[in-house]
Amino acid sequence: xxxxxxxxxxxxxxxxxxxxxxxxxxxxxxxxxxxxxxxxxxxxxxxxxxxxxxxxxxxxxxxxxxxxxxxxxxxxxxxxxxxxxxxxxxxxxxxxxxxxxxxxxxxxxxxxxxxxxxxxxxxxxxxxxxxxxxxxxxxxxxxxxxxxxxxxxxxxxxxxxxxxxxxxxxxxxxxxxxxxxxxxxxxxxxxxxxxxxxxxxxxxxxxxxxxxxxxxxxxxxxxxxxxxxxxxxxxxxxxxxxxxxxxxxxxx
Length: 252
Hints:
Elements: H1 27-38, H2 42-49, H3 54-64, E1 73-76, H4 82-91, E2 97-101, H5 104-114, E3 118-120, E4 133-139, H6 148-158, E5 159-170, H7 176-198, H8 201-216, H9 220-230, E6 233-240, E7 244-250
Parallel strand pairs: 1-2, 1-4, 2-3, 4-5
Antiparallel strand pairs: 5-7, 6-7
Helix pairs in contact: 1-8, 2-7, 3-4, 6-9, 7-8
């Protein structure tokens, strides 16, 4: 039986995917290595994977959640900085947006692009002060954490009273026909095109893994329940095109 390092009240975002790692404790090293290997090519293949959502969608979600000039933001799983870049544009000050990521490869790319403070850490253990941010954001990375409840408790800790959590995710469509089409595109077409356009075998693995985590991710109501269990209030989920979901909650 695989060892489960999580506590009794923990919620994993998806079950162990045995074709990539054998044990829950192996997930983090696998994900870190995969993103390190693919960081130089991530922005190229993101355009294939984002289905046209891109910068305008990220900016819209931030503004609709209430982000405004002068706010301080912690962008967790900053990656190459795609969401953080839009946060900088809205807040108007690079010093007000801090990026956090497990992958040193992703941080290296973000460092060359953004000029914001960057920290290497996991979402479950942020090396940042209590009540230090107006917003905590995460773009398309919730499926890669170990424990949803632990992550949301950390988000709550670093938020100021009145602060907001905003999570962007791609989820499995609920309509059968759309689910079949998206499965074919994200599960087969995108991995092939990513491998072909970059020449990197790890890119194909990343894209295949992305789709499998989407396909096996816990339902939206489980994510909302984990947010409530961590102490976040006014939690909600907005759905666009039966595919894109933005989760939000507040520290009151």
